[in-house]
Design goal:
Elements: H1 2-15, H2 26-40, H3 44-50, H4 53-56, H5 60-70, E1 78-89, E2 92-103, E3 106-117, E4 120-131, H6 136-139, H7 141-145, H8 147-173, H9 176-193, H10 198-203, E5 206-212, H11 216-226, E6 228-229, E7 243-247, E8 251-256, E9 269-273, E10 275-277, E11 280-288, H12 291-314, H13 324-359, E12 362-363
């Protein structure tokens, strides 16, 4: 997995280093290059044939001659597109393109606008003027554009590295008895994953019910004495506590104990309810990401998909290019939640074992389909 993410990062950077804007709309930049070649070869008649009525009037021929005089009689050293705007509505396309050309004597900037259907283009605007040499900022535009994606890939790589280190450290610190108990809970979560809903599988949620002979009040007392506070400044906390969270009379939330260091942080939470019954207390548990994270992710996707589409509609057109950003962000978010699902299966047994040991609880017999084994408590 780590090698795949590194390869994706290299491809993202490499794809953004050479004519990255031009690759988005090759047809529009091709038309602009064709117009520039006509200007350089003084083919004014062809340009006037493509021009619309608003350009052909007046001294358009003189303007073309003045532009052509600025172009040296040599092959450009380099050329690139600096901006492209395209909108399409009912098959009718309007576009504007800005190109820069480098010659031995300096730089020229060509700006054109056109409209029409398919290959029938009408030139509505043309301008050619000297411009300053492209600065160092322009050379880094591809990298600046891909900074969000690069940051996300690096964040995913960091998550994978720290999880591997945390898993290795935990294996060294865990006793054989603890490993056996957590292996039991790992098998239980794996069995439950095959029967959970598609949404829970995508976001990494697992649900399991524990039962104990203790009363709900006793469960609340034991959890309160064993779970450390989530507050930044803790005045008092249980000794040797491995989890933190909050505990209320009828429900609780716990997660792995955090510190300022990433290696001690697990983005997994266990939400539980304390439900009294005739034989003791039932504890329905939900393992997965924090509920606030799911709400923020849904709101983020809504904004990411709504803003580009609303912009295109308000400007009278729709382009497939505007879907690239939302699709990429959705894909990376899906990848992040898939990692969250793996975290549930790896770190979930630790939290379940903590609750089971604290409450003298075991898995409810009905939690697994086809289970006929009796419940065994310590």
């Amino acid at each position: 997995m780590l090698r795949r993410l590194l390869l994706l990062l290299v491809l993202l950077v490499a794809s953004g280093c050479d004519h990255w804007i031009e690759k988005l709309e090759p047809q529009e930049t091709g038309f602009a290059r064709h117009v520039f070649d006509l200007l350089q070869h003084r083919d004014f008649a062809t340009i006037e044939g493509m021009a619309g009525p608003n350009l052909r009037g007046g001294d358009f021929s003189a303007q073309l001659a003045g532009m052509a005089a600025l172009i040296p009689a040599e092959t450009p050293i380099a050329s690139d597109a600096t901006s492209i705007n395209v909108s399409t509505a009912n098959g009718y396309t309007k576009s504007s393109v800005t190109m820069v050309y480098q010659f031995s004597t300096g730089w020229l900037e060509l700006s054109i606008a056109s409209e029409g259907r398919d290959d029938a283009r009408t030139l509505t605007w043309i301008s050619l003027q000297p411009t300053a040499a492209r600065g160092t900022v322009d050379g880094f535009v591809p990298f600046l554009t891909f900074i969000p994606l690069v940051v996300m890939v690096l964040a995913l790589i960091g998550i994978i590295i720290y999880r591997r280190r945390a898993a290795k450290r935990e294996r060294l610190e865990t006793t054989p008895e603890e490993q056996q108990r957590r292996q039991h809970w790992s098998i239980a979560l794996g069995d439950i994953g095959g029967r959970t809903s598609w949404f829970d599988r995508v976001v990494g949620i697992r649900r399991i019910t524990l039962i104990t002979t203790l009363s709900a009040d006793e469960c609340h007392r034991r959890l309160s004495a064993s779970v450390a506070s989530e507050a930044v400044f803790r005045l008092k906390e249980p000794p040797h506590s491995e989890v933190q969270g909050w505990v209320r009379p009828s429900r609780f939330r716990i997660t792995r104990k955090r510190s300022m260091f990433l290696s001690e942080r697990y983005p997994l939470f266990l939400y539980g309810d304390l439900v009294a019954d005739r034989t003791g207390t039932r504890v329905p548990c939900r393992l997965g990401p924090q509920r606030l994270v799911l709400g923020l992710a849904a709101g983020f996707l809504l904004v990411v998909w709504t803003m580009p589409l609303a912009f295109d509609v308000s400007h009278g057109g729709f382009t497939l290019v505007s879907l690239l950003g939302p699709l990429m962000m959705t894909g990376f978010m899906a990848l992040g939640f898939s990692l969250s699902s793996r975290t549930t299966l790896k770190a979930g047994p630790h939290l379940l074992d903590f609750v089971a040991q604290t409450l003298d609880a075991a898995e409810a017999p009905a939690a697994r389909s086809g289970s006929t084994q009796p419940v065994v408590r310590r």
